Amino acid sequence: MKIWTHHYTLQPGSDPARAARGPRRGALIRVEFDDETPGYADLHPWEEFGHGPLAEHLASLGTEKPTRLASLALRHARTDAAARRAGVSLFDGLPDVSSHALFTDWVATPRSQFEQCAAEGYTAAKLKIGREPHREVEALNALADLPLRWRVDANASLTTSGESIDTFLAKLNPSIRTNIEFLEDPTFYDAATWSALSEREKISLALDWELPSTPPPWPGAQILVIKPAWQDAFPLALAGAQAGMELVVTHSMDHPLGQSVALWTAMRLRQRHGDLVRDGGLQAVGLYAPDEFSAQMHTHGPRTVPPPGTGFGFDGQLSAIDWTVLS
Predict the structure, then answer these.
(1) Would the pLDDT of 6 be above 80?
(2) What is the pLDDT of residues 112-129, one digit of tens each?
(3) Do 101-305 and 2-92+315-325 fall under one CATH topology?
(4) Of 48, 84, 117, 220, which shows the fewest CB atoms inside 10 Å?
């Protein structure tokens, strides 16, 4: 097995409502397995979420014990190589999976942008809460008449902000409260706490952060959020589906190649599990400054058009960048 790397930096986009909060760094890998057909994948760790530094993952690639993220990247590269060898796109014949709209600073987002999302056919928007709960309640209530559903992600932060999730929900306009599609990570997962909250508030709870060590079912959690860059998506989705959970696939705010892997995973899982797979978090509109890779990721409202080319796409772009042999 031969491995090359290409380090990249993704710069924030120009729209503050959608832009990443700062530059993000990672590395693409090019891997030759059994023949000279290369396979490509993305390595994009988030040290803020407990991942080791990029250098640690890269150093593990050529060892017998790659890190979890490196192991997943190698698996994606192998899948990509097999499709490139056959000269086919991995997206051929797969069903579409739409995406919610993503805003990184939604409190300051003009109402017109939410109206535009609804006009473009989006049915849901994802909103992070917990940094400024009082402002967030006010901003969300101001959107009560819009025909959108709300995916509200607390990242377990309300417990450290001085406001309980019950208090936050109680302050919402009834029509907003009714249109919350699900509440993601209201607290760190605890079966008793989540079960009581879900029953008390009559609300669907989505589990993303810090999955339990035991297999599902996970009482109180009705929806499982899956990030293919971080998690072994297919067995995890199967376990969730067998436990009656619905599934939401999201990218990891990573490189367009990583986003392509997430899109393919969502489509492949919908092919397997049907309507248990809800629309995902599969777009990065405005998240990063445009480049030659993002130019291949086209959107039509909530639908993302898979990038052209073989495997996960980007044939010309991957051929044009500089690669360094992994020592």
Answers:
(1) yes
(2) 999 999 999 999 999 999
(3) no
(4) 48
